[in-house]
Amino acid sequence: MSQRTLVLLKPDAVRRGLVGEILGRIERKAGWSITALELRTLDRAILEQHYAEHVGRPFYEPLVEFMASGPVVALVVAGERVIEGLRALAGPTDPIAAAPGSIRGDFGTIVRENLIHASDSEESAEREIKIFFPGVA
Q: What is the C-alpha separation between 18 and 111, in angstroms, rounded?
């Protein structure tokens, strides 16, 4: 079953020059394709929509500040089981728990700055794609 997912390469990935490496890993996955891609700095309004379910949690403000601290690369990736696959490719949020070969396992340093976001379900993917790429049906 073909799916779409939103991926964000976070400010730390951009700052550290890892965009090409991460995009290459996504592009080399057979059957996946990047259907939208944009480099942008996120404003608070977009971040509040994206992280709405986390309002009030202790990590919310530091997360919003981090995500607004520099440009991100936002992309839509389509393909077979792409939601599950991209989350596996990203690895767990904690880079110490992330397996070698995953993006966070190979390049992650701390939990808060964890390089990549990938939607966690079809519902999240559709909601997030509408936030970041409203013109992409």
A: 17
Q: Is the CB of residue 46 less than 8 Å from the CB of residue 132?
A: yes
- Segments of the chain scoring below 70 in pLDDT: 1, 137
Contacts 24+ apart (CB under 8 A), 88-95: 89/25, 89/26, 89/29, 89/118, 90/115, 90/116, 90/118
Q: What is the pLDDT of residues 47-69, one digit of tens each?
A: 999 999 999 999 999 999 999 99
Catalytic residues: 117
Topology of the domain comprising 3-132 = Alpha-Beta Plaits (3.30.70)
Q: What is the 3-state secondary structure (H, E, C) of 24-88?
A: HHHHHCCCCEEEEEEEECCCHHHHHHHCHHHCCCCCHHHHHHHHCCCCEEEEEEEEECHHHHHHH
Would you say 112 is a known binding-site residue? no
Q: How do residues 102-115 score in pLDDT, each as one tens digit? A: 999 999 998 889 99
Task: Say whether 10 counts as a known binding-site residue.
Answer: yes
